[in-house]
Amino acid sequence: MLKILTSECLYGGRVVRYDGGEVPETHPTYLKWKEEGRLIPICPEVFGGLPTPRPDSQRQGDKVTACTGVDVTAEYTKGAVEAVRLAKENDVAFCIMKQDSPSCGSKFIYDGTFTDTKVPGQGLAVEMLRDAGFKVFAEEDIEEAAAYLETLL
Ligand code: SF4
Questions:
Q1: What pTM did the predictor assign?
Q2: 7 C-alpha vs ligand 1 centroid, how far in Å?
Q3: Could you give the number of structural domains in the chain?
Q4: Which of 17, 31, 104, 144 has minimal CB crowding within 10 Å?
Q5: CA distance 35 to 38
Q6: Contact, 39 vs 6, CB < 8 A?
Q7: What is the full DSSP assignment across 69-81?
């Protein structure tokens, strides 16, 4: 069965978001994939060693900084490397990642000024996944992802 890597906060079942909140994906196709055992969940930030909850962090260039001023680039990088490792280990067909995150964002990220300003960009894990050759969809693009999966079956 072709597998799909996905952000763990979309997959649900374990609280991993920085704010302790939950954002489980409810699209019926995503739930069907989950039921089939097609989804491989990962939270790059937790895999990078960060606690939940944790301070809001944003990416600027290759650096990720918490709102407290602490440089968390090393943890974010470690989590991104883990995401690529898992994607390769499971030979995933593609990834579905949570939009806007400094790790998982695939279209936009916050600009690093902590002023609620989004800019076109991608999170560190998504950048490394794409560099490794994996296609990445945002959770709002499940139907596009499903159409792509059909072309692979
Ligand atoms: S790093 Fe990704 S999986 Fe983890 S909480 Fe943030 S968006 Fe979700």
A1: 0.97
A2: 6
A3: 1
A4: 144
A5: 8
A6: yes
A7: S-B-HHHHHHHHH
Q: Which amino acid is at 143?
A: E
pLDDT tens, position by position, 43-93 = 999 999 999 999 999 999 999 999 999 999 999 999 999 999 999 999 999
Q: Which atom of ligand 1 is nearest to the CA of 10?
A: 8
Specify the residue with its C-alpha closest to ligand 1, atom 5. 17
Range of the domain at 139: 4-152
**Is omega for the bond preceding 53 within 30 degrees of 0, making it cis?**
yes
Identify the residues whose C-beta falls under 6 Å from ligand 1.
7-9, 16-17, 43-45, 98, 101, 103-104
Strand partners, 117: none
CA distance 130 to 94: 10
Tokens of 120: 């076109």
